[in-house]
Amino acid sequence: MLTREKVNRSVKNLPDTFSIDELIDQLIFVEKVEEGLQQSELGLVISNEDVKSMIDKWSK
């Protein structure tokens, strides 16, 4: 979840002029990175070997 501090930091990193779409893209990016880090900390990850195995099955 985003916090006001994270949103403020994201806005400060944007150029002096930006579109609402750029702001939304930045906020979605920050939220997804935070979500991924949290999943990683909880061990909710897939190993490279498992991903390679899954991809191999798709090509057959």
Largest sheet: none
CA-atom Rg in angstroms: 17 Å
Euclidean distance between termini CA atoms: 39 Å
For the residues shown, what is the average pLDDT? 94
Query: Helix and strand succession?
Result: HHH
What proportion strand? Answer: under 5%
| Domain tally | 1
User: Uncertain runs with pLDDT below 50, 5 residues or more?
Assistant: none
Q: How does the helix and strand content classify structurally?
A: mainly alpha
Shape: elongated
List the helices and strands and how they pair.
Blueprint: H1 4-13, H2 20-41, H3 48-58
Provide a descriptive summary of the structure in words.
The chain has three helices and no strands. By secondary structure, it is mainly alpha-helical. It has one domain (about 5-60). α1 (about 5-15) packs across α2 (about 20-40). The longest helix is centred in the middle third of the chain and has 22 residues, at about 20-40. The radius of gyration is 17 Å and the shape is elongated.
Keywords:
60 residues; mainly alpha; 0% strand
Short summary:
The chain has 60 residues and is mostly helical. It has helices spanning 4-13, 20-41, 48-58.
